[in-house]
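REVIEWER CHECKLIST
Item 1: Sequence provided? yes
Item 2: Single chain? yes
Item 3: Sequence as submitted:
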Amino acid sequence: MQSTEGVAKQALTASEVPAGSEWPTRGMFPLFLASFVALYFELIVIRYLSTEIRIFAYLKNLALIASFFGIGLGMVLERPPKALKRLFPLIAAVLFLLIAFAPILKLTHLPIPSADYVVFTPQPAAPKGHLFIPWVLMMFLLYLVSVPAVIYLVAAFFTVIGDIVGQCLSKVPPLQGYGVNLAGSLAGIIAFTVLSFSDLPPVVWVLLGLLAVSPFFLRQRWALVVFGLIVCAMAIPQPHTYWSPYYRISLDEAPPPPGWSRPSAYVVEVNHDFHQPMLDLSPEFTARFPDAEPNRSALPHYELPYQLVPQPGLVLVVGAGTGNDVAAAVRHGATHVDAVEIDPLILGLGRKLHPEHPYDSPRVTVFVDDARAFFKKTNHKYDLIVFGYLDSQTLLTSFSSIRLDNYVYTLESLREARGLLRKHGTLVLAFAAGSKSFLKERLFATLAQAFDAPPRAYFTAGATTGIVYVEGKGAESNSIRQFPEISKELESGLAGTLVATDHWPFLYLESRTIPFAIWTVLALFLYVAITTLQRQAPLRLLATREGMHLFFLGAGFMLLETKGVTELSLLFGSTWIVNALVIAAFLFMGLAANTLVMISPVSRRLAYIGLFVFLLLGVFLPYSLLGGLPTLEKLLAAAVLVGLPVFFSGLVFSRSFRDVARPAQALGINLLGAVVGGALENLVMVGGTPVLGVLAVVIYGISGASIGAPSPRQEA
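Item 4: Structure as written out by the authors:
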């Protein structure tokens, strides 16, 4: 077996950069900085893109796949196109200014061919008559042109960054370099998490990223000028706009009626889409201005739970938002209200600006938490549980197709909520189902199974439009006159309705299928990606058993990461900090495995045995079974189930990576495998979350079968 130093010298000779290059890529710190830049910008692009060009909030992990492809391609290329490197500042300018000025460029609400997938974002109105079919074809063509164009721009941006990482990696011993790469990536996650928690705007995110990448462009003075212009353009003020860990929030104030001293309402938008109003529904205001809008139309909706339960006692409001549901509970004499809201900034706006100031009441206790996580933590029993409009309009994580609120509306979630009701307690669930009948039917059927009897359902219309589902014996004797009851209509379709569960939590997906809007653009991107690799990249390594082994390790790790993020979010809550900690923990376990391999030789055979033991344990022992454990035991058990497969996978990869001749290309091949893993993740919408574990077992099995028979010296 070659020594590590000999391998490093061979890699350095093969990848030497021409004299006079502008890339300061020697040493460990440049590699750390380049790795930081790669993951940090990846997180920025994924979040910022889905916020400003709304179509990417519904196209799952496509931006993540494009990022991995770009970084992998940049590392695999032996001689990346020089023009691409020279044009990087312009590519960065086009990408970030395109995102920043998407509303002005009319890119925020691109058409989405989504008949089988619900999106809460405005869509162009279709003409009637003979113009309908040409219009549909034109919108689909616009979709197929605009979405891939943005994705290819993202891939080009990360190809240059991947080239920087690859050049740095090629000049250090493989294992030490991979450890520094993981440490830099971990620092990137921490930095972006801190900025998100601090509610800082995108101009600060991008400023830090451009400062970090600037050392690699010191000899291109014009590049530094372009970076400065990007920041200046993004720094243009956006009045009444705030950035929370989850959303871009904008606030519009409704002018007060004559003779009223404070605003009667605010309209809250998240990510450029309507989210909720903040209303003055106090008796003083509604009596004095009975026709004021949107207050008049919204009042019956917020009064409805208290027509059903006139003396509410202890009330739980999940999805409390800016406080309308909480204010209603306080107005109607609730003895105490527990208010749960996941977004701290939306909650803060409610504390500061809500006309009725419900969060100032001594009878209200506020919890900044995920609804499912709160269900597991609380020891209280409630007379009334109110589900606010919880449609989150954003994804739980870039690694998955699951939205932030999907786990709130599953059968298991509603059963947990039922367990929190006192005897004869009542649950009221409001949801903006719009014109999608399958959403109404699914929620009705889920409640029917959760409560072992069909609920009562009403159609409401006003400031918000939706369905109100009522369950609880305490509400049976009360009737609602102003809203038509539609229970019988929905009850007739109970038998064949697909119910959302923790294993298949896709509330907004009509059937077990990959939506047309997703698979078409994904297939187009993968076709172009394969064509690019065939023309540009030296794929001799991929054609070898060693290359296939590294490729499938990347695909398996991506599936493993997706499985961990989604299932631990179910276990501990779909909060930003849970997702950040899970991804950071994955990198830390990889770093620990790499350190162990550097210290002592590790047999890949033993590492694979450990990997498959814990992979199979994860398949047959889902993390959700840990939900009933006390907090400390749950944390320890989850750490074992999630961390050890990642650790053993890291042992396999680091043991294989130790002997590669070209570490940059080897890691690039691994990242290209992650692209395939990200594409395979779409199958979760067909088979549910358990398919992730099964796919991981299969993919890791292929990676193990790809290893050639080792020589005695290699196995040493």
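Item 5: Key structural point noted by reviewer: The domain at 24-239+509-715 is CATH 1.20.1250 (Growth Hormone; Chain: A;).
Item 6: Recommendation: ____
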